[in-house]
Amino acid sequence: MLIAAAMIMAALHAQAATRPEPGERRLTVKVGSVDREYVVYVPRGYEGTSRVPVVIMFHGGGGTARGTMTETGWTAKADEARFLAVFPEGARPDTSKPAHFVLNPQVWNDGSGRFAAIMKADDVGYIRAAIDDLRRRFAIDATRIYASGFSNGASMTFRIGEELADRIAAIAPVAGTCWKPAPAPSRAVPCLYITGTDDPLNPLAGGEIRMPWSGTSAGTKPSVWEDAMRWARGTGCGEASARIILDRGGVKATCWGPGRGGCEVFLYTIEGMGHTWAGGRNLLPEAWVGRTSDKISATDLIWEFFSRHALTASPS
Q1: How far apart are the first and last CA of the chain?
Q2: What is the pLDDT of residues 169-219, one digit of tens each?
Q3: Residue 163 — φ and ψ, nearest 5°?
Q4: Nearest CA to 314 among 109, 171, 135, 178?
Q5: What sign results for the dihedral spanned by CA atoms 148, 153, 156, 158?
Q6: Is there a contact between 96 and 57 (Cβ–Cβ < 8 Å)?
Q7: Cβ-contact 159, 177 below 8 angstroms
Q8: Short-list 156, 135, 137, CA closest to 68
Q9: How far is residue 55's CA from residue 39's CA, in Å, rounded to a whole number?
Q10: Element (H or E) spanning 215, and its range?
Q11: Would the pLDDT of 7 be above 50?
Q12: Which of helix, strand or coil describes residue 251?
């Protein structure tokens, strides 16, 4: 009996020793010869025994994991709904110096040929490695890994949704571009796309974009409608299936589908909102990005959408 009690106490001690404390931790994975960092937020109440979902959130161009945590409220949502919130850091020109919005911006290789593509950053390989690292370190539900992102991070979200369709259950890009004219994910990945009607960096009509702080070109974008349609076509949601499901209080939502596997694609436009995260905190000057909006909480809406979707089988 004493031996049994000792074994139980030892097991409890080992569990307590390995159970992650709630809060944030900075982790590193190697991609080829390059070390890449990401921040994972462990929610309150995580025991390390029951498997939990994962939300991967990509910062905008020039942003950081820390800034995105402040802007979006994903850590509070993680505590409320009990999932791991993951904030990868993009590639920056000078890795010997800290990230800086203008002087040393962190960016994503989002498929546009801009930004991190010039540095030949393997961001898809990076996220694949980060997911593998998370599976080793934490008790995660591999059928419920989701991706969201803002601006350049939203464009990265579209890319991840296509190239890691076997691992990502659903995506939610905000104020970014689907750069690939004909995305063809191996699995139809559900998508919720959010943007503002007054966004100077992701205009509804598309066109050439210039950075307001430097005047440099950020490329020529398709229209927001074409962004959504690209994903709808790629997931088998026909153009004729488009229907308005909400048009109230300055919020308009269009839905396409169902497509392959019952996939649906949603486009939410927020009247009067600029290049910001709806319901979040804007860290850039309004003169650059326009007004924010509290007509919806993007974080709440996205989590409600994510919570309805899962892979049908756990990836290997």
Answers
A1: 41
A2: 999 999 999 999 999 999 999 999 999 999 999 999 999 998 888 888 888
A3: -85, -20
A4: 135
A5: positive
A6: no
A7: no
A8: 156
A9: 12
A10: none
A11: no
A12: strand
Q: Please state, in angstroms and rounded to a whole number, the distance separating the CA atoms of residues 70 and 281.
A: 7
Contact predicate 110/156, CB 8 Å: yes
Residue carrying structure tokens 């505590």: 79
Domains of the chain: 25-306 (3.40.50.1820)
pLDDT tens, position by position, 209-249: 988 888 888 889 999 999 999 999 999 998 899 999 999 99
> Which two three-digit tokens encode residue 287?
């003169």
> How far is residue 211's CA from residue 287's CA, in Å, rounded to a whole number?
12
Q: How far is residue 253's CA from residue 255's CA, in Å, rounded to a whole number?
A: 7
Length of the chain: 316
Distance of alpha carbon 164 from alpha carbon 170, whole angstroms? 11
Instruction: Look up tokens 């031996």; give the residue.
Output: 3
DSSP letter (8 states) at residue 107: B
Give the tokens for residue 252.
């308009």
Distance CA 141, CA 45 (A): 16
Write the single-letter amino acid at 110.
Answer: D
Amino acid identity at 128? R
Cis (ω within 30 of 0) for the bond into 258?
A: yes
Sign of the Cα torsion 133, 138, 144, 146 reads negative
Burial pattern 37-49, b for ≥16 Cβ within 10 A else e, equals ebbbbbbeebeee
Q: What is the pLDDT of residues 82-119, one digit of tens each?
A: 999 999 999 998 888 999 888 889 999 999 888 776 77
Mean of the per-residue pLDDT values of the chain: 92
